[in-house]
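Board notes (copied after class):
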Amino acid sequence: MPDAGRLALVTGAGGGIGAAICRRLAPRGLHVVCADIDASAAERIAKEIDGTPLPLDISDAQAVAQAADDLRSFGAPLVALVNNAAIWRFGEFGSVPVADAEQVVRVNVMGPWHMTQSFAPLMPAGSAIVNISSTLAVMPGRGVGTYPSTKGALVSMTLQFALELGDRGIRVNCVGPGLIDTPPTHDAYGLSPYAELIATLPVPRVGEPDDVAEVAEFLLLSAGYVTGQFVVVDGGWTLIGGP
């Protein structure tokens, strides 16, 4: 049972951007519920920040609804929700198996939908939601399957959520990371063509998970007059063209 008077919930909390956001929120007086489909990863980050692990498949609407019911027993308000969990199944559009495409949609689109639908009722006025999208939501790229489409849908959902939840005093914003050094991408960014691309960025380096977490923290806890916005964190990648 958490000791803090306020709760935050982060999905995909087990590593990369999600873990960085957890580490940012915990020192701000929030008890962080670390949700991840990988139970051991959720446990690891929760132990590190003295949070609560939550093994959860966000694409399972029933499991999400049950998790929301369980969270009510904590007896503390949920003031911050971060929809970060996502997957990708890259490949040329015409060759991506239907099952892979549908799985990406279930996690990247329906997952945040389930989370927001189930957990927003637990959030009091003054709370905030941040959705983690991608710069690929606004830039086309070859061989990335349905991933950009799902991230574009998340931007659109952010606007809808912000409009509908505004009357309840809940702000909703979206962050679009660019080339961020996370475990799945770390090795690739040192190779061609990524190395050449990174050298041309206005901020010529690979982003770190904490670059994204810093913006998420601001939107959740400081930006009281900001809602319905899509903020890219990409070192200027979107300024110089597509992938």
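Comment from the instructor: Helices lie at 16-25, 39-49, 61-72, 98-119, 147-165, 194-200, 209-221. The radius of gyration is 17 Å.
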